[in-house]
């Protein structure tokens, strides 16, 4: 995929978190990360629920995330 190729060719983003990862949603391949295999406490349940609700809304209205710019 062209988008995947473009992402892989870019330098990873600057992130101040102790650990993080960006994955390909289709394949599960980790594209970028820092300490992505370290065990950590779970994130805030509020953040997790917010993400879950947004994903459900996107699916319900059939929004094409690749064509949508925020």
Write a brief caption for the model:
By secondary structure, the chain is of the alpha+beta class. The chain has helices at residues 2-9, 45-60, and strands at residues 20-23, 30-34.
Walk me through the structure:
The mean pLDDT is 77. This protein is of the alpha+beta class and 70 residues long. The chain is globular and about 35 Å long. The chain has helices at 2-9, 45-60; strands at residues 20-23, 30-34. The protein has one domain.
Structural classification: alpha+beta
Assembly state = single chain
Percent range of helical residues:
25-40%
Radius of gyration: 14 Å
Beta content comes to: 5-15%
Say how many strands there are.
2
List unreliable stretches of 5+ residues. Answer: none
The coarse silhouette is: globular
Main sheet properties: 2 strands, antiparallel
Tally of alpha and pi helices: 2
Q: What's the pLDDT, averaged over the residues? A: 77
- Largest sheet, spatial ordering of strands: 1-2
> How many discrete domains?
1
Give the termini distance in whole angstroms.
22 Å
Series of secondary-structure elements, N-terminal to C-terminal: HEEH
What keywords describe this structure?
70 residues; alpha+beta; two-stranded antiparallel sheet; 2 helices; 2 strands; 34% helix
What is the element layout, followed by pairings?
Elements: H1 2-9, E1 20-23, E2 30-34, H2 45-60
């Amino acid at each position: 995929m062209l988008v995947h190729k473009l992402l892989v060719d870019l330098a990873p983003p600057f992130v101040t978190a102790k650990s993080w990862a960006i994955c390909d949603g289709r394949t599960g391949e980790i594209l970028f990360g820092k300490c992505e295999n370290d065990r950590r406490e779970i994130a805030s349940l509020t953040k997790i629920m917010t993400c879950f609700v947004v994903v459900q809304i996107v699916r319900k209205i059939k929004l094409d995330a690749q064509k949508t710019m925020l």
